[in-house]
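Long-time lurker. I teach an intro course on protein structure, and each term I like to show students one example going from raw sequence to a predicted 3D structure in token notation. This year I'd like something fresh instead of my usual example. Would anyone be willing to generate the tokens for the chain below so I can use it in lecture? Attribution to the forum is fine with me.
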Amino acid sequence: MNIVILIQFLKERILHELNLSWLFLAQEKFKFYHINMKQTLFDKVWDFHVVKHVEDGPDVLFIDRHLVHEVTSPVAFLGLKTRGIGVLYPERTFATADHNTPTINQHLPVEDPLSANQLKALEENAKEHGISHWGLGHAKNGIVHVVGPEYGITQPGATIVCGDSHTSTHGAFGAIAFGIGTSEVEMVLATQCIMQPKPKKMRINVSGKLNFGVTPKDVALYIISRLTTSGATGYFVEYAGDVFENMSMEGRMTVCNLSIEMGARGGMIAPDEKTFNYIQGREFTPKGAAWDKAMVYWESLYTDKDAEFDKEIYFDASDIEPMITYGTNPGMGMGILKNIPNAEQVEGGVSTYKKSLGYMAFNEGESMIGKPIDFVFIGSCTNGRIEDFRAFASIIKGRKKAANVTAWLVPGSHQVEAAIKAEGLLDIIHEAGFELREPGCSACLAMNDDKVPAGKLAVSTSNRNFEGRQGPGSRTLLASPLVAAAAAVTGKVTDPRTLMKEFA
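-- Reply from a regular --
Happy to contribute to a lecture. Here you go:
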């Protein structure tokens, strides 16, 4: 039996039996076979998970982890029921409630009938099919893309899908992770596979040292502003360079989370010691000998020298400053000290650009500094982790919330909530006049009661600023937790570095 036939046999055996020991044997054979081949990180993970390649068509891709929530899953489960089939591998499916959950009084019945019905449906469907379910009130409940990494569900070299656009978050661990539609949710539940055309490959390199006050959120918003919201369409992005190597895992999650906002199918970063240290010992990560076996595979997950990308882009870290958006898509962003560009300076139609500024009630050439704001939101799967609350607290400490500001501080999970209390951040939050809410997606997409009123201006650490995204008629400025904190205590758009220097 030659090596190619053996590898195929092993792959088929793995996918049939899902025996972990076979997985690592096959991966070792893969390493031997590809020793003289130049592969990207993306190629290594994708190609290993291909069950069947359709000529001039999509690949049938095996999915290691399927994350579900209450919004995009009910119709998918109904489809299974209609066809009289079940969930193929319930142990590979994880359900949590996050989108429709209230962020206050979670111990009380949910008042909104639609939300209540969706939450009930998730609970019932999970129970019927033997799926792990972390519903409202569960100690492990939280935003799906926050709790996945927290509990070690997210692992290097895995394929991960969810009926949610920002599934790309999990790419920070060297996983291929992307959002899927409801019909695809049903497909994965039924078969543990999905049909997908293989995207093209892009590498974005950011090298050098970040300036004072620049966060991972700023890096991501800067990249999107340079590439526009369509600049990575059709690509899966790998982030490389010492800026990402030096980032914390939470920072890497923020960057990968925002990959889709420039049109990418997803984003990923090669796992390293920082990755392995983060996931070791978590509930769903391998233990003992299984960990050692896993490391054999995980340590092979990097882009080979001289591997080719379809497109490669380079940025200098020194060019990045604290960012803020001014329009109605994440690509309409700029350094916080700059003025809003003229229509002729940006890509796209003039009329569309002017319509966007009209919605925001802004004008070309205006400065963002000093604009009065009404709401501040810190949270979401982009910036709802403990490092984000540490950053927020570092600015508000010793200050008071501005009287004109309504602030929603929403942790991404109960684990984040517990850390806020354990580290003394809750005291800082209360002393400054803020209140901490309970975990959930909250005002990111305004599917619960956390809606910014029409016409009001919000500085938000979330991921989208489309018209009405945070409530009908609401206006959103995307920014980092530092920029959000500075706005929260001054009542206006403020360069956070001016406040940080006071404590330097």
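Some talking points for your students: Residues 123 and 359 are 39 Å apart (CA to CA). The two ends are 67 Å apart (CA to CA).
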